[in-house]
Amino acid sequence: MKIGILGAGSIAHKMAETVRSMEKTEIYAVASRSLEKAEDFAKQYHIPKAYGNYEDMVKNSSVDLVYVATPHSHHYEHVKLCLENGRNVLCEKAFMINSAQAKEVVRIAREKKLLLAEAIWTRYMPSRELIREAVDSGIIGRVTSLTANLGYAIGNKERLVRSDLGGGALLDLGVYPINFALMVFGEDYQEVSAQGILSNQGVDLQNSITLTWKNGRMALLHSNMEALTDRRGIIHGDKGYLVVENINNCEAISAYDLDRKLIKQYEIPEQITGFEYEVESCRRALENGETECKEMPLSDSIAVMEMMDRIRKLLGIRYPCE
């Protein structure tokens, strides 16, 4: 599978580092708004093609899959560009700015029978199944609630500070606690409430989200772009609790009993960077003639965007590009 990378920022570098250690997959092309930047990137990773604009790369029929690695504000434009030129797409999270954009790119992808997937890596990792198996095993009993958080001291990054780039903690970080909760409790949540602290530019510096389900389960979620958090996800049951270290890239899963004693640890498979799972899922889907990845169906990407639309409305956040 030949991959073209659209955008040459830090996350694009991580993807290139990942793929060069994989089999059956290669980075074939990279495109940036600067030809010099694209050529430097290509030289670093021995990539055959470098482009100083996005249009020329997506018109290259040798590119099997385009990885969109630009800021949130540009995902809609760039994914449409790829799809309209017949390219399959793996788009970095957050999928789009809002659910209306998500529904439109999904419509185009389905109309053209092209693969479209959201690169939210936690949905593709083996740890997802390990957590599900642990919960389903009954080791912590009847599960009633969970907490999850993600925070880094990254409030000086331009893409997070600027409203016109779709900045703020929610789209960049909050998407992980949200997906963690939905992976554990399911997509059929009943209510969502939220509070946040906004910057002078109108983006959320931190937020707190509460989700409830009809079966009485509850999730308390937090994301913060101005402080480091422990990144833990904790699932609570009537016989104990399960601790997931680092919901952004699971490092350990441990089960504890009612006396808070460790009763079981689950082994996390070794990985390249963690990005390989989403790439491999796309490769398998294309090989099988499928237009979605089973790990993150497009209906789930839309559902998450709809939830974040509701949260942003509660917090009073609107982006200039909407």
Note the gap between the termini. 34 Å
- Round the mean pLDDT to the nearest integer and report it: 97
**The biggest beta sheet, please?**
8 strands, mixed
Figure out the total of helices: 10
Strand order of the largest sheet: 8-9-10-7-11-12-13-14
Polypeptide structure, described:
The structure is a single chain. This protein is α/β, with parallel strands linked by helices. The chain has 10 helices and 14 strands. It has helices at about 10-20, 35-45, 55-60, 70-85, 100-110, 125-135, 160, 170-185, 275-285, 300-315, and strands at about 1-5, 25-30, 50, 65-70, 90, 115-120, 145-150, 190-200, 205-215, 220-225, 235, 240-245, 250-255, 260-265. A hairpin with a 6-residue loop joins strand 12 and strand 13 (about 250-255). The radius of gyration is 20 Å and the shape is globular.
Which labels suit this protein?
322 residues; alpha/beta; eight-stranded mixed β-sheet; six-stranded parallel β-sheet; 14 strands; globular
Indicate the topology.
Elements: E1 2-6, H1 10-19, E2 26-31, H2 35-45, E3 49-51, H3 54-58, E4 65-68, H4 72-84, E5 88-92, H5 99-112, E6 116-119, H6 126-137, E7 143-151, H7 158-161, H8 169-185, E8 189-198, E9 204-213, E10 218-224, E11 233-237, E12 240-245, E13 252-257, E14 262-266, H9 276-287, H10 298-315
Parallel strand pairs: 1-2, 1-4, 2-3, 4-5, 5-6, 7-10
Antiparallel strand pairs: 7-11, 8-9, 9-10, 11-12, 12-13, 13-14
Quick description:
The protein is of the alpha/beta class and 322 residues long. It has helices at 10-19, 35-45, 54-58, 72-84, 99-112, 126-137, 158-161, 169-185, 276-287, 298-315; strands at residues 2-6, 26-31, 49-51, 65-68, 88-92, 116-119, 143-151, 189-198, 204-213, 218-224, 233-237, 240-245, 252-257, 262-266.
